[in-house]
Amino acid sequence: MKHISHPGHLLELKEDNVIRENAMCYVCNKTVIGTPTYTCTSKSVSCQSFYLHKSCAELPPKINHNKHRQHPLAYLPCEGNFCDVCYCYPKFAYSCLNSDCDFDVCLSCAFEERMYQHEGHAEHTLTLVQRVALFTCDACGEEDKDLSYICNVCQFWIHRRCASSPLHISVLAYHHHPLTLIYAIPDMHRYFSRYCTICDEKIHVNMWMYYCHRCTYFVHMKCAASSETESINEINSGGIEAKLADLVRFPRRSEESVFELILTQCEKFRVEVQGKGKNSITVSTIPSDPHTIEEHWSHKIHPLELLRFTISEDDDIDDSQTLICDGCIQPITVFHPYYYACNQCNFFLHSFCAIKLPMELPAGASLCHPQHLLLLRKRDIFYELVECGVCAYFTNGFYYECETCDFKVEIRCAFAPLRINHTSHRHYSLIKRPFSGSRCNLCRFNISEGIEYACETCDKFHIHWQCALYPSQMKHKYDPHSVTLEYPPFFYEGVFHCEVCENQVNNQLMLYHCRACDHSFHFNCLRSRNSIKFGGTVELKIDNKLHTLAFVVKRSTGKTDPDHYCRSCGTGYEYYWFFECDGCGYLLCHQCAFEKLNK
């Protein structure tokens, strides 16, 4: 066929082989994906991007319109004139041929339904208001001047463009499933606040949105239609991959990952600061370390004996049997099996932490505090906690201290790299910087203390340093398989609950999940953000009764369960550190216990 929109060449109807994701109709400027479309038969390069909806090609040559009853209107190119109804500047319009009228109406306004029954407001009929007005749309929440539909019964008021939004979006550059237009967040997903996956802003419960039920994936209406949405496939990653290859990648692969990160970053420090080969760190199956350390600086009361960690395939180790290093507060495993132990005190150190951690970091050596010398330290009493000046979390393990500034930094943070690469933002590098008050893209909490890692390119991605440290695989006593760290969008229909605390899990956040057992876990129920070793015991006389109190962490196990109350101050906690009597369950919060033990 020939058409006035492309008079130079014949057009050919194509039913389903339009392949460009951004293909738009030349006349109405809407996508042609999934609809019968005419394309140009010419091989000219300038014509390869011409598309015309079959419906736009078959529009009647003349119409009558209620806004201009004097004369019929003809379908013509619109050269610089605006629509006299909505004031847009269309390429084609229905125009009055009478030169005295100068009336034009765009295609949308020409065929607009004046009475509209929409399933988003099924209880009443909507009426088209054919003049531009300033209002706040009840569908998208945006204030705008636009044509609108209004319900005369309950004053429900929506943009005309919202009323004509497609019920389904099937071809997407930013998601692997089709999206459906819904008119409120489903009841089963209202336990948590929900956020748009594109702009990361909160979605109001009763606004219209696009939704993938298979992934709990929500998108604002305006974001779903935005031409600025970046497709991962459009990123030229050839040069980017090379730049990211040398960066430390997160998440690390296993529970041993944090210790391995400390080890490798410490080796890098030795090479850069002390010279290549000097006191270099080596990890061998047969250590050259002494078999006994008579008086280690961190544990002078008893000798430390060198041992080798072993485990058979039949062993079923629970949390109470896991050996935790008192230096880096990471598990001792078969991957780095040699450790020093004082079994009398349940005091353990990786052989690396015992003898190969630098006792001091010269000024300029540490990125977290380059101004002054940092000295390796540890508190004498296991329940004395130190707050890290970098991540703002607590530790009872090793830390570096600046005596000039009274600045303290735990081991994990002392060797944190300047730049990293993270799976959830894989095409860009993240740089370490002071917190900005932004919301962490992994846990949704504001980063209000310490440091963050932020994207150098888009400035839209921020994560806590502690969130980056969660490993991609973990073992847990509640699941016979390794559980995997998952990032949204998470392919799962419905809701699920944490096997540890029994509360609902938000699958718009990172979470641990076992697909074999269908078990799910909050990420922080499996691993604490703090570097604290629990399990130490003290004896304390309370009301003439001697209690043996163990240092433990207590968390609520459900919404209906009572909080944990301190028997001294009466304060209730959902999550806190306590001293608990194994015999009678007597609880003292850490603060009250510390005061009583230091009287």
From TrEMBL:
InterPro entries, sorted: C1-like_sf, DC1, Vacuole_Formation_Reg, Znf_RING/FYVE/PHD
Q: Which residues cross the membrane?
A: none
**Domain DC1 as annotated: residue spans:** 5-57, 121-163, 174-224, 298-354, 368-414
Question: SUPFAM superfamilies from the xrefs?
Answer: Cysteine-rich domain
What keywords are annotated for this sequence in UniProt?
Repeat
Q: Keyword Kinase: yes or no? A: no
Protein name as annotated: DC1 domain-containing protein
Origin organism is Daucus carota subsp. sativus
